[in-house]
Write a structure and sequence with these properties.
With 104 residues, the chain is mainly alpha-helical. It has helices at 53-82, 88-102, and strands at 2-3, 10-11. Helix 1 (53-82) runs antiparallel to helix 2. The radius of gyration is 34 Å and the shape is elongated. The mean pLDDT is 84.
């Protein structure tokens, strides 16, 4: 017998809600379905299959773009230190060409 926690009415074990107040009964139990599967069989160990291919491609493209940004930042920093600006122009053109050809 299950006792309702709201009104105290006793109900049978297979009842899901109290017949008097409609409150959900907390201790309703159902037997596990017997579909022939063994429950004491050992579990398979987890095998990591790696990162999905499309995610790996996206990560590589992002890393490549950041490498270009770092190269450009290095050239810009050296131009600021030496106060010579002409190396920045071919560097920007070269990186833009790489980005266009690699379709990053």
């Amino acid at each position: 017998m299950i006792t309702c926690t709201k009104c105290g009415t006793k109900s049978s074990d297979d009842t899901l809600a109290c017949p008097k107040c409609g409150n959900k009964l907390q201790s309703s139990r159902r037997a596990a379905p017997d579909n022939g599967a063994r429950t004491d069989a050992p579990l398979e160990p987890f095998r990591h299959h790696g990162v999905p291919g499309d995610l790996m491609r996206s990560l590589k493209r992002m890393l490549e773009a950041w490498a270009y940004v770092l190269i450009l930042a290095g050239v810009a920093a050296s131009c600021i230190v030496y106060r010579i600006w002409w190396p920045l122009y071919p560097a920007v053109a070269f990186i833009a060409l790489l980005l266009w050809l690699r379709k990053v």
